[in-house]
Amino acid sequence: MPLSTLVLKLMGGPAALPQGHPSISLAIQSAFTVPLGLLVAIALGSLEPSLFLPAALIIVGAHYLTFISLYGMWLYGALAGVLVAVGTAAIFVMPDLRDTSGWVGSAILLLAAIPLYLTYRAEFQGHHSSVA
Q1: What is the pLDDT along the chain (132 residues), one digit of tens a residue?
Q2: In whole angstroms, what is the distance from residue 39 CA to residue 44 CA?
Q3: pTM for this structure?
Q4: Cα separation of 132 and 130, whole Å?
Q5: DSSP of 84-110, one letter per residue?
């Protein structure tokens, strides 16, 4: 999140919701779901270490669901679905994927950054061109 904020500021766009925006509370609450959820992944991983990364993918993926409302971008729902599906598959269907699921999740996040950025840029430029 701090890196994303820095990149958005360097690109000249808004790096946060405007002050007083009604969804700021939702954004703050959403931010706490990952560290708190990771406590469950840590507990699960202490029982079976290979389950930590897939559980973390499910937790991180689920936290992106609130981003659909926060940022008005359905692409976050697709990202959430893919991360949750990979984590779930690694736990229940493809146990061989468990040890590499962290790398798979990282690749998914990097790939998702492209359409998310392009959508953001198109919306940001469209908003500013209609205002000007």
Answers
A1: 666 667 667 767 666 777 887 788 888 888 889 999 999 999 999 999 999 999 999 999 999 999 998 888 899 999 999 999 999 999 999 999 999 999 999 999 999 999 988 987 787 666 655 544
A2: 9
A3: 0.82
A4: 6
A5: HHHHHHHHHT-GGGGGGHHHHHHHHHH
